[in-house]
């Protein structure tokens, strides 16, 4: 049987994993990445000798079993993350009331009560929908909150900021489908007040995962082409024609596009099907800017200077 030849466009985590699975199953894989390095959002930079991960998300054994299996297969060392959250405390009441003044703060207690209520309401809502196909799954999160009487304080001080930390989205999250938001929050135990479920991270930063995957791909004969931006991906009777921006092109038996939705649509061009246009065209993005704080303490804001001294 002739070996299948497959192109993978995009060298982020999704593209790397797709290429790894294909190569492991015996396919001839060519991986394209427009940047000069692999990893996409999983990027490690070094600042004054310290390695810093940019954009890498934590994961857990419960919610990310496939990633756990992959990391174990690639022998990527993992360790517990050190992360904070309003809604999750690992040291009981001492963590919940880290600011002692909140013990007498009625607004704080109101949020705590609504967190507990929200967890129960969300669990009942998801269970009802999953057991009844006739229930409307298009109800927005905003309507869900309004119907059940949640305060503006709870939404602005807790729920919306929580969603923003997960998806980098704005207050528009309340216009999202409740059924798309609530199961995710529940599955990740976002509303556990005391049962802290610690997440994991790669011990030697995200670059260790990228390096190990790259080594594994190369050992299986995968061609990795960085600085190779794809202009179009077209299909014909013989397979897929992948054309680079420099004008070169190659024919493959198949192609996996592991890029952002707008980029994928641009590559597909006029050949994009109705479903591809409908699904990929529905993705929306929000611009976010990340900044590294200056090393010089005198350049920090007054609030951060005060916190550093205290």
Protein architecture, described:
One of its GO terms (molecular function) is oxidoreductase activity. Residues 13-265 form the Amine oxidase domain. By secondary structure, this protein is of the alpha/beta class. It has two domains: 5-81 and 202-280, 3-Layer(bba) Sandwich (FAD/NAD(P)-binding domain), CATH 3.50.50.60; 93-187, no CATH class. The protein contains eleven helices and eleven strands. It has helices at 13-24, 65-73, 93-96, 106-130, 141-147, 152-167, 178-187, 206-219, 261-268, 274-280, 302-309, and strands spanning 5-9, 28-32, 43-47, 50-54, 78-80, 200-202, 223-225, 230-236, 239-244, 249-252, 254-257. Strand 9 (239-244) and strand 10 form a beta hairpin. Helix 1 (13-24) runs parallel beside helix 8, helix 4 (106-130) packs across helix 7 and helix 5 (141-147) packs across helix 7 (178-187). The model is unreliable at 85-94 and 298-310 (pLDDT under 50).
């Amino acid at each position: 049987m002739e070996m299948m030849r497959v192109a993978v466009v995009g060298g982020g985590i999704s593209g790397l994993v797709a290429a790894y699975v294909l190569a492991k199953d015996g396919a001839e894989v060519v991986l394209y990445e427009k940047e000069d390095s692999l990893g996409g959002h999983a990027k490690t930079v070094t600042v004054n000798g310290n390695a810093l991960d940019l954009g890498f998300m934590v994961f857990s054994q419960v919610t990310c079993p496939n990633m756990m299996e992959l990391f174990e297969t690639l022998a990527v060392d993992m360790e517990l993350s050190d992360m904070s959250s309003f809604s999750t405390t690992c040291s009981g009441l001492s963590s919940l009331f880290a600011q002692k003044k909140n013990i007498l703060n009625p607004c704080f207690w109101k949020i705590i009560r609504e967190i507990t209520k929200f967890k129960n309401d969300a669990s009942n809502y998801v269970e009802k929908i999953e057991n009844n196909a006739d229930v409307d799954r298009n109800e927005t999160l905003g309507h869900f909150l309004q119907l059940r009487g949640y305060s503006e304080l709870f939404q602005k001080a807790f729920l919306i900021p929580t969603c923003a930390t997960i998806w980098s989205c704005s207050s528009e999250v309340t216009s999202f489908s409740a059924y798309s938001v609530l199961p995710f929050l529940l599955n990740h135990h976002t509303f556990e007040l005391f049962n802290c479920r610690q997440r994991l991270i790669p011990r030697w930063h995200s670059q260790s995962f990228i390096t190990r995957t790259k080594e594994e791909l190369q050992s299986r004969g995968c061609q990795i082409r960085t600085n190779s931006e794809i202009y179009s991906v077209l299909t014909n009777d013989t397979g897929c024609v992948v054309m680079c921006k420099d004008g070169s092109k190659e024919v493959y038996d198949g192609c996996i596009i592991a890029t952002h939705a707008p980029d994928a649509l641009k590559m597909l061009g006029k050949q994009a099907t109705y479903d591809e246009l409908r699904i990929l065209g529905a993705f929306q993005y929000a611009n976010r800017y990340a900044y590294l704080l200056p090393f010089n303490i005198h350049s920090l804001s007054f609030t951060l200077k005060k916190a550093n001294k205290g």
